[in-house]
């Protein structure tokens, strides 16, 4: 199946392409089907829930292209910070610039907020909600994944993106910044949500 994945994040694109193409699907992104970036997209992630943000993105890009569309919203939730940065994960520090500069600013803000915190107060989880629209007017199908871990006092590893170098995975025993793409795909929040979607797209057998 040809699937439009509604993200312009190069990090997300790498992860989604690996998983969906391995499952036999053709994957395209907005730029590849002629959907130029627009200011309208700034209003697609203003809700207070991952679910609503993902649905708004899916509806927008499905209407633009007519293609079966997947959109996700995901982020880091630190329990002692009341679930922050949560839906504001990408924009938490209010920084602008390159993706790397924005990531560095967000990581610095996270470290500042948790300075001196105990291990228990550093407990966190990554959470992802995917919305799939088979057609622009279809009933949204929703899939969710999460994974637990702890926020370290300093970054480890150069891989991944976002908060990955600070997120010590319970499953792996090392940060997502230290993990290979395949290792992260198997247990990450996005990997688990995509696995549920892939299962739902699989041909039904009698």
Averaged pLDDT, please? Answer: 94
- The number of E-state strands comes to 6
- Look up the CATH topology: Maf protein
- Name of the top-level CATH class: Alpha Beta
What is the terminal separation in angstroms? 21 Å
Protein architecture, described:
The protein is of the alpha/beta class and 206 residues long. The chain has a single domain, classed as Maf protein (Alpha-Beta Complex), CATH 3.90.950. 31% of the residues lie in helices and 20% in strands. It is built from five helices and six strands. It has a six-stranded mixed sheet. α1 packs parallel to α5. The longest helix is centred in the N-terminal third of the chain and has 16 residues. The two termini are 21 Å apart. The relative contact order is 0.15. The mean pLDDT is 94.
Secondary-structure blueprint of this entry?
Elements: E1 2-5, H1 10-22, E2 26-28, H2 50-65, E3 69-78, H3 99-113, E4 123-133, E5 141-151, E6 167-169, H4 181-187, H5 189-201
Parallel strand pairs: 1-2, 1-3
Antiparallel strand pairs: 3-4, 4-5, 5-6
Helix pairs in contact: 1-5, 4-5
Question: Can you give me a brief rundown of this structure?
Answer:
The chain is an alpha/beta fold and 206 residues long. Helices cover 31% and strands 20% of the residues.
List keywords for this structure.
alpha/beta; 6 strands; Maf protein; 206 residues
